[in-house]
Amino acid sequence: MKFEAKLFHELTVDELYQIWRARAQVFTMEQRVYYLDADNIDQKCLHCFLWKDGAVIAYLRAFYDDKERTTVKIGRVLTTTHGLGHGRLLMEKSMLAIRECLPHKCLALHSQSYVVGFYEKLGFAVTSEEFTEAGIPHREMEWRGE
């Protein structure tokens, strides 16, 4: 298993294909979320992923969410396998890569409500009431660790 953190222009065609394949597999096929995934944000993102046997098995993207470039938002977090620790490994390695590549004051994400505890173990704290995004209950969270 290999961890990668790349800006959009650094991705190979195969990596990009495998990222979009994994996103379709998890968000469209598993979670039945129907939305336009090609949202013109990928081009300004740091793409972090675990790569195994030619496939993306865990992925997230991170990007500046404000003009001042003080807030980095993590999104499209997924694993294609569950219960094997790939999500935690992805987050730990990605948070280091984000800190190095996208200097920021605030690290934020929208967590699906049922996985809030996962992010809390990584140092994130809930900062909002529950809201619906893409038909799924979510909570805003910010990283409070060091």
Low-confidence stretches at least 5 residues in length (pLDDT < 50)?
A: none
CATH superfamily: Gcn5-related N-acetyltransferase (GNAT)
Number of helices: 3
Helix content: 25-40%
Shape by Cα distribution: globular
As for the CATH topology, it is Aminopeptidase
Give the tally of β-strands: 8
Can you describe what's shown?
With 146 residues, this protein is of the alpha+beta class. It has a single domain (2-143), classed as Gcn5-related N-acetyltransferase (GNAT) (Aminopeptidase, 3-Layer(aba) Sandwich), CATH 3.40.630.30. It has three helices and eight strands, in the order E-H-E-E-E-H-E-H-E-E-E. Strands 1, 2, 3, 4, 5, 6, 7 and 8 form an eight-stranded mixed beta sheet that branches. The longest helix has 18 residues, at 13-30. The protein is globular, with a radius of gyration of 14 Å. It starts with a strand and ends with a strand.
Short description:
The protein is α+β, with helices and mostly antiparallel strands. 27% of the residues lie in helices and 36% in strands.
Record keyword descriptors for this entry.
single chain, 146 residues, eight-stranded mixed β-sheet, Aminopeptidase, alpha+beta
Tell me the layout of helices and strands.
Elements: E1 2-7, H1 13-30, E2 46-52, E3 55-64, E4 71-79, H2 86-101, E5 106-112, H3 116-121, E6 124-126, E7 131-133, E8 136-143
Parallel strand pairs: 4-5
Antiparallel strand pairs: 1-2, 2-3, 3-4, 5-8, 6-8, 7-8
